[in-house]
Amino acid sequence: MKSNAPIGVLDSGVGGLSVLKVLHQMLPNENFIYVGDTARTPYGSRSEAEIRQFVEEIISWLEHQGVKQVVIACNTLTMLGIDSLKKEHPFELIGMSKGEQLLLAASKKKKIGVFATQFTISTEAHKKAILAADASAEVYPMACPKFVPLIEGEQFGNPAVAEAVAEYAAPLKEAGIDALILSCTHYPFIKDVVEAEFGAGVTVIDPAEATALLSKASLEKEGLLSDEKAGSVTICCTADLERVKRLAARMLPTEACSFKEISLRD
Ligand code: DGL
After folding, report:
1. Would the pTM count as exceeding 0.90?
2. Annotated catalytic, 144?
3. Domains defined for the chain, CATH in brackets
4. From the candidates 144, 184, 236, 237, which is the catalytic residue?
5. Which of 17, 65, 162, 209 could form a disulfide with 251 if both were Cys (CB 3.0 to 4.6 A apart)?
6. pLDDT digits over 125-174, tens only?
């Protein structure tokens, strides 16, 4: 495995760009290949068998690009179980951090909210991780199926976004949470609306940085950190290249990125 090989980053759509942003800032010497399966997003309301098939197709495609590590920049896919996705791939897979330590550090009242897709919420993975770290915590999970279509559809100025945020926030505000995790990588695109809805008494956590630290630690351990002066960022998608370019510009300095529409069967 060569240390200057690229790092693969994947998601069902544009959400993982919020993780790519942090990875690129933390590891500027690395080459990144991002894949967003924009032809088939959202994944979060699909069956486990279907999601599993899709992610295996993306990982195989990235393997053909010669990646040295794959970051699963998608909570829904991470919840399938990183070990079960590993197969015989010659590289490490890094999943999204569940952020339980960050949440417990941020929450004085130990009343914690989780915003995520239906699939992620159905696994109860965040609730279990938080309770394993502190059994006295109270966890309030909330599936937010309206968010991903609004974000993929670039509906940022649409009142429907604030309305959906208010709808999902209401029971968590009622419960009196003081920390909330955005456990879907799409949601940082509307973090400002979520923060405005909850107000200053609730700390809103994006687990992207904790995830990027896991990626970095694994590269260090394997002796695979790049020694290039400046890395490259290639953003690939399976549909709607122009839309992906506009959404990427909300997260990354896109003048330094290259873009490609791909077929996962290539
Ligand atoms: N961005 C994804 C996540 O982190 C998945 C969104 C979806 O496709 O439903 O869960």
Report:
1. yes
2. no
3. 7-96+209-261 (3.40.50.1860), 100-206 (3.40.50.1860)
4. 184
5. 17
6. 999 999 999 999 999 999 999 999 999 999 999 999 999 999 999 999 99
